[in-house]
From TrEMBL:
Protein name: GTP cyclohydrolase 1
EC numbers for this chain: 3.5.4.16
Cross-referenced InterPro entries: GTP-CH-I_C/QueF (IPR043133), GTP-CH-I_N (IPR043134), GTP_CycHdrlase_I (IPR001474), GTP_CycHdrlase_I_CS (IPR018234), GTP_CycHdrlase_I_dom (IPR020602)
Domain of life of the source: Eukaryota
Record-level GO cellular component terms: cytoplasm
Pathways involved: Cofactor biosynthesis; 7,8-dihydroneopterin triphosphate biosynthesis; 7,8-dihydroneopterin triphosphate from GTP: step 1/1
GO BP of this protein: tetrahydrobiopterin biosynthetic process; tetrahydrofolate biosynthetic process
EC primary class: hydrolase
Organism: Pundamilia nyererei
Gene3D superfamilies given in the database record: 1.10.286.10, 3.30.1130.10
Keyword Cell division on entry: no
Catalysis: reaction(s): GTP + H2O = 7,8-dihydroneopterin 3'-triphosphate + formate + H(+)
GTP cyclohydrolase I domain segment(s): 108-283
GO molecular function: GTP binding; GTP cyclohydrolase I activity; zinc ion binding
Length: 287
């Protein structure tokens, strides 16, 4: 028995023990171990209370024991699901790593060629490992090609009776413009109005990552984030605004140091209802 219990006090009732489950299932993947621990503890507490309770009738004990067994089964299922998704994620990660590793030599050679065509001496000390570093860097900066929304939203969508606007603003975004392969970066503001389903807030930032870690144009990036959230959550509306500085404008060409490009994508009620759209734009601008 993992806990010492005061057998004379009613510490855990069967209903309390079972009530723990829905709230645990709503938690995002990381705290699952905490939830599972809670469930295991509550299951143990319950069992102990049943075995040691003089105030329960035989029928009550039997019913409570069944409930306790159910909690145990659910804990077991929880562990199995968790293990399965960890194993799947692990396989997926290894596959991506293998793919990246197999493409690394060709990329390294390509970067060596680029340096030579720039007139550099690729044998000088400072550049010896540059092609390899650059190859790894470009793989990281475009890692979004390997990722899908399904991968990251696994277990992170929860049923919730909430239909007010949710806004997450100032999400950092770094991307590469597909015309010049130089960075553009800035902030993303996301708003959505749930339709009985909400997503863990950090997952919105992960969705931004998936689409920004590719060769992009800002307009498409904005729309992909909005459509991605819309498809995953089926909300009443999604609004996305991106403000970004483009190094291809700042460092070359027109060299406008402080220029910012602002793009927006509005879906559902944000498109149909000007008031809702205004509310989002007002709240996302506020510091
Ligand atoms: Zn560009």
């Amino acid at each position: 028995m993992p806990l010492s219990l005061n057998h004379t006090s009613k510490q855990v009732s069967p209903s309390l023990s079972l009530l723990l489950l829905p709230s645990c299932q709503k938690s995002p993947p990381k705290p699952i171990s905490t939830c599972t621990t809670l469930l295991v503890l509550s299951s143990s507490l319950l069992l102990c209370t049943i075995q040691c309770s003089p105030w329960l009738t035989q029928a009550e004990s039997k019913r409570a024991l069944t409930m306790s067994t159910k909690v145990g089964d659910i804990v077991e299922e929880f562990h199995t699901d968790n293990k399965m998704s960890t194993v799947n994620n692990h396989h997926e990660t290894s596959r991506k790593e293998l793919e990246d590793a197999s493409r690394l030599p060709a990329l390294e050679t390509a970067y060596t060629d680029i340096l030579r065509h720039l007139g550099e001496d690729t044998d000088r000390e400072g550049l010896l490992r540059t092609p390899l570093r650059a190859a790894k860097a470009i793989q990281f900066l475009t890692k979004g090609y390997h990722e899908t929304i399904d991968d990251i939203l696994n277990n992170a969508i929860f049923d919730e009776d909430h239909d007010e606007m949710v806004i997450v603003k100032d999400i950092d975004m770094f991307s590469l413009c597909e015309h010049h392969m130089v960075p553009f970066f800035g902030k993303v503001h996301i708003g959505y109005i749930p339709n009985k389903k909400v997503v863990g807030l950090s997952k919105l930032a992960r969705i931004v990552e998936i689409f920004s870690r590719r060769l992009q144009v800002q307009e498409r990036l904005t729309k992909q984030i909005a459509v991605g959230i819309s498809e995953a959550l089926q909300p009443k509306g999604v609004a996305v605004v991106i403000e970004a500085a483009h190094m291809c404008m700042v460092m070359r060409g027109v060299q406008k140091m402080n220029s910012r490009t602002v793009t927006s994508a509005m879906l559902g009620v944000y498109l149909e209802d000007p008031k809702t759209r205004e509310e989002f734009l007002y709240l996302s601008r506020r510091t």
